[in-house]
Design goal:
mainly alpha; 10 helices; globular
Length: 210
C-alpha cells in the first residue's frame, strides 16, 4: 500500500539525515568538518579532520543508521520493494540531510549498512575485498567507486539465482550509481594521480570561516 512506502521513505530519509560525522566533529573539536578536507561528513573526512577514533565512531554510526531503518521496515512490512524504498531514502538522507542544510557525505558507509541489513552474508563476504583495495592503494575513494558496482553485480546475480528479491538488486544498482556520481570529482583526481591518500588532506577549505 502507498502508506507503507510513505512511512518507510520518511523514516529512512529522516534517519539517514542524522549528520553523524557533523556531530562527531562538533563533539571532538567543536568544528564543522564540512569546512575542512573534502567538505563531506563521512568517515574519511572525519579521520582527516579529528582523528581515527572519531572516524571509527562516525563509521559505526553511519553503518548503523543505514541498517536499522531497513531492518525495522523488513520486520514491519515484509515487502522487499518497500524495504528497497527505505534503503534508498536512507542513502539520499545521508547525502542530502535535511538536518544539515542538505550538505552531507557520499553515502558509502550508510549504503553498506543497508546492504548488511538486506543480505548480511553477502555484505560480510564482500567487505574483505574492499578492505584489500584500501590496504593496497590507501585511497578510500578508489575502494568506494570500485566496490559499488561489484556489490551491484553480486546482488543482480543473487537475485537472478532466486537467492534474494529483485528489489534488493534494484537498490544496489541505484546506490552504486549514486555513489559513483557523488565521487565524480574523486574519479577525476584518481585518474590524474592527485587524489589524497587515506588520512591526508584535512586542511581548512578555501573560503571557510576561521
Amino acid at each position: 500500500m502507498a502508506w507503507e512506502y510513505l512511512v518507510s521513505i520518511a523514516l529512512g530519509y529522516l534517519v539517514g539525515s542524522i549528520p553523524i560525522g557533523l556531530i562527531v566533529g562538533r563533539v571532538a573539536k567543536g568544528i564543522d568538518i564540512r569546512e575542512f578536507g573534502s567538505g563531506k561528513t563521512g568517515f574519511t573526512n572525519v579521520v582527516r579532520t579529528v582523528g581515527m577514533k572519531w572516524g571509527i565512531a562516525a563509521l559505526v554510526g553511519d553503518i548503523a543508521k543505514g541498517a536499522l531503518p531497513v531492518v525495522f521496515v523488513r520486520l514491519a512490512f515484509d515487502d522487499p520493494w518497500v524495504t528497497m524504498a527505505a534503503g534508498l531514502a536512507v542513502a539520499i538522507g545521508h547525502d542530502f540531510p535535511i538536518f544539515a542544510g542538505f550538505k552531507g557525505g557520499r553515502g558509502v558507509a550508510t549504503s553498506f549498512g543497508v546492504v548488511l541489513a538486506m543480505n548480511p552474508i553477502a555484505g560480510a563476504v564482500l567487505l574483505p575485498f574492499g578492505l584489500a583495495i584500501l590496504g593496497i592503494t590507501r585511497i578510500v575513494s578508489l575502494m568506494s567507486v570500485a566496490m559499488a558496482p561489484v556489490v551491484a553485480i553480486v546482488f543482480v546475480v543473487l537475485s537472478a539465482l532466486g537467492m534474494q528479491p529483485w528489489a534488493y538488486a534494484v537498490y544496489a544498482i541505484a546506490a552504486a550509481a549514486l555513489i559513483i556520481v557523488l565521487h565524480w570529482g574523486n574519479i577525476q583526481r584518481i585518474i590524474a594521480g592527485t587524489e589524497p591518500r587515506f588520512g591526508k588532506g584535512g586542511s581548512r577549505r578555501e573560503g571557510a570561516q576561521a
